[in-house]
Amino acid sequence: VHRDLPLFLSLMNDQHRSLTRSLISHSVSVSEILAVRELDVDGGTKDDGRWQKMPQKLTEAYPYAFTVSYVERARQHRWQCSDVTFHCSEGALRQQWIQTIREQLTALSMADRPKHLLVYINPHGGKQQGECIYEQKVAPLFACASISTDVIVTEHANHARDHLKTEAELKKYDGVVCVGGDGMFSEIVHGLVSRTQRENGVDQNSPEEKLVPCSLRIGIIPAGSTDCICYATVGINDPVTSALHVIVGDSQPMDVCSVHHNNTFLRYSSSLLGYGFYGDVLADSERKRWMGPARYNFSGFKTFLTHHHYEGAVSFLPATDILGTPRDKTRCRAGCFICQHDGPNLCFCSIPEYEMGWGVVRGKFLAINAASMSCACPRSPKGLSPAAHLADGTTDLILVRKCSRFNFLRHLLRHTSKDDQFDMTFVEVHRVRRFRFTPRHWQNDSELDLRENGKQLFSQICRDHPACSCSPAYSSWNCDGEILPHAAIEVGVHCQLIKLFTRGIEEQPLFEDLANPPCAL
Ligand SMILES: CCCCCCCCCCCCC/C=C/[C@@H](O)[C@H](CO)NC(=O)CCCCCCCCCCCCCCC
Ligand SMILES: Nc1ncnc2c1ncn2[C@@H]1O[C@H](COP(=O)(O)OP(=O)(O)OP(=O)(O)O)[C@@H](O)[C@H]1O
Ligand SMILES: [Ca+2]
């Protein structure tokens, strides 16, 4: 720009000033431009306050200016919006630049950038900051990018789900955005998936049914307690970063598990299905919602101390003909090769499911976890299954057998370090397409009645098994942060059923500092 056209580049913040001094050129891909607007140099009023007046001599020589807002990468996957202002001496030249950039942006909008979004805000998620986060950090960015929105602040749980399922005029929108945590995201998934199946005549109650993928993309503005879906798909739980991924029109397919009990649909899961430890943590933490995000630490500690185990059988259909394994060192990242290979392999081939292919593991378990994605979150940046993939059509089934408290603690601690949490004698992990769990004392339909008479059953089991450590017969399933009413479930992975407004976690530059070079002078 400097050399070829008579434009003068005026960079607006300190970081930029250091860039002019240290870089010969700085390029921004058009796909990462958010907006372009004229700038009134004399008044200096059309910008958002970051405008600093140019020396008078320069403004006289270059009185025509325009500002380009674009995505800038910061540390740890964070994106922010930056402005760069160009000055020139002729109004016609400025118009030519603005028009050309706008034409390019219009072409992108025609392709994959959203123009009209439906936004649901949970005012009670996480630290109860949803509305404030949206108004202060996200709405101004959507406005800057000329995205129009219909905003609904939810009034009760399942408001967003039910609105999407039945009422929402989905044809009007290019995507749905939720402001909240994993629970809010789950509501959106349930609303959109159920609606799509109904409109296509698919029966959700049949575990074997192939579900129809949803066409609308989902954006998550993180404002919850765990924000695991956001963290594991973007690399950070930051509202501005997520909003920018929506604006540039990113798209990331994602697997969804369906959970059934006796040919009845229960729920969908896109992150964690956990029985035993994570089920018990959730059940306890639900009674302590008033504690906010800290409830999970409290209930986690308590559940760790109670150290209950649960008996049952897990049968599973291993995913064959795939490249990835749960013990891989490679990670699912933007443009993931494994997802591109394994996903279509499972999505589009109808592999016959021979009963013979199923494996069975029986025993006493502290935890049975199915992670359809890494489940990375601030608590465990590598997640429950670090090598799991977002869109490969599989879930990683992690079985933690009964062991000592000390060993279980070692296993838990490894979620927070580089050590392999699967490399322990009492832990096994399988990459699967389907699985079933049957608790030891489960008797078909009478299961619920038995659970209701839990006390009776509990004392009965203790009498029958005098050596038992008085663990209750059943735990609960934690299904993406919701408790399921049944212990015996059947789970199937639906490959790439939904799409998110992200691109997956971007690889970090080898030397991150090179992305933001220090001032050379
Ligand atoms: C000693 C430290 C060990 C730390 C081990 C941390 C492993 C954490 C793995 C987190 C996986 C989260 C998976 C995400 C699930 C979401 O779909 C769901 C909805 O938001 N979140 C939860 O269910 C919320 C689940 C929250 C679970 C929190 C578990 C906290 C365990 C604390 C154990 C303390 C033992 C201390 C002994 C001295
Ligand atoms: N207006 C509302 N009032 C009460 N509950 C709501 C409302 N809107 C949504 N919910 C419910 O609140 C629950 C929790 O919301 P959300 O996921 O946003 O936050 P969180 O639980 O703090 O975060 P996380 O799921 O990440 O742990 C969801 O299951 C959702 O169904
Ligand atoms: Ca997966």
Automatic annotation (TrEMBL):
Entry GO MF terms: ceramide kinase activity
GO cellular component, one term: membrane
Pfam assignment, any one: CERK_C
InterPro entries: ATP-NAD_kinase_N, CERK_C, CERK_PH, Diacylglycerol_kinase_cat_dom, Lipid_Phosphate_FormReg, NAD/diacylglycerol_kinase_sf
Domain DAGKc: 112-263
GO BP term (any one): ceramide metabolic process
PANTHER family per UniProt: CERAMIDE KINASE, SPHINGOSINE KINASE
Protein name per the record: DAGKc domain-containing protein
Organism: Oncorhynchus mykiss (Rainbow trout)
